[in-house]
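Supplementary Note 3. Input sequence used for the single-chain structure prediction.
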Amino acid sequence: MLSTSIRAKALEHKELVEQWGKKELVGKAAKSAGIQRPETRTTERVMEDVQYTGIVTRGVGKEFHERTAIAKKDVDRFALIYSMSKQKFQADIKNRLIPIMRRGYAWESPQSRRLREQYMTKADKIFTMFDNCDINAEFFSEGAAIEIHSVSSKSMEDLEFCSAAGIVDKKPRKRKNDTSGDAVFFQELTQRGERAIMFGVFDGLVEGRGSESEASALAIKILKEYVEKIRDTRSHEDIQALLTQYANEADSTISETMNNLGGTTASIGVVSGKQMTYLNIGDSRIYAVSLAGIPVVKKITTDDGIAGAVERGACIPLQEFVREAAFPYLYLGSFSQQINGRYAGKKVLHQGFTLRAPNIGTINISDYDMILGVTDGVWKHLPMKVEEKGFLVDANCELTASELIRGFKSKKPKDMVESLHEYARSNMNAGIVKVKNNYSVVSSPEDIGIVAVSV
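The predicted structure, written as discrete structure tokens, is reproduced below.
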């Protein structure tokens, strides 16, 4: 946690920036007030100097000639790597700077040696800059993040250096100005000197006509307020406690904002080291994927809807699953419907808001290479196993998802979310389709939300 004095100094700096931005104090007035222009943020200082960007280029593994194309996300990545292993990273950077040669001169010429000396000096300066700033607060509270919600057409973001990508799209036949009810979130941070990530997928629900995106966007807004709290945790039990606290706060806030007429599903994961702590409410899902050899997919979360009931051993006809897709708020537990919603205890599965396994937990993910968070607009279009009498046998879609991913040309996060999006869109209007070996697809037009993260 930041000390009180540092927080006060940061607040004072913010106020000065706002004053300068509004030009409230200029010229003699500023001098008489004893106010000087605040120091530029470290990110901006780095971006404004071609030698600094050259050092960042080498630090993030790019070619030196790419230094003019360095973006803020590359500086974020540089800061993240530096924060995890400072001495090793400093030595590594200087080794990468040694081959620099001034254009048109020989490697051993005085001009080339002077250029290398300049870069070595600048490297020391950039490291000092990073040492004198709060890396977490300055870089990762705002940068290294994906946040997509309230979109009226396909929207996609990817962070190449973080190996993460997200996509949101609205279902077919929605009106032009309607927005998708789905939303995705991703944040990379450092936790006790190690890389950690936090992600989530949300699917807004509303009874009757209304904005589904309002609830899912609000869930993300509240989740962002927990980033700093989770960064400072010391155990996975603490993370579970914070996620439970988040769920209760989100439930209460969304219930009040939506007048108990809407809510959102939520599948959230926090990955620290080789452990992932997760929270699930509703029927969005988190899958872990092993990409070594033949892809293997493992479903981590358990749905609150019919698919989850089948997974726990219930015998439910396929036709009831079709009905759930048409009236989700009658079946699913979601924020604002579990505590204060008008349907609480009447028409949704949850009789009270109690998070327990399998809704929340921590698992080891050392055997996996990627984590996928998907809303029902994706997984409901995967084949599910059905008995001859028409009862659902297996709705976790692990085998069919593995077969699907096996056919993708590229397994990078960006390509993964694009391929899953294309697959889901192409199957939305198929209705109920029987496939081989007693598998059926129960497709229906749904909003799409996907986030993929390499771990």
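Residues 144-454 form a domain with the Phosphatase 2c; domain 1 fold (CATH 3.60.40.10). The first strand starts at residue 145 and ends at 148.
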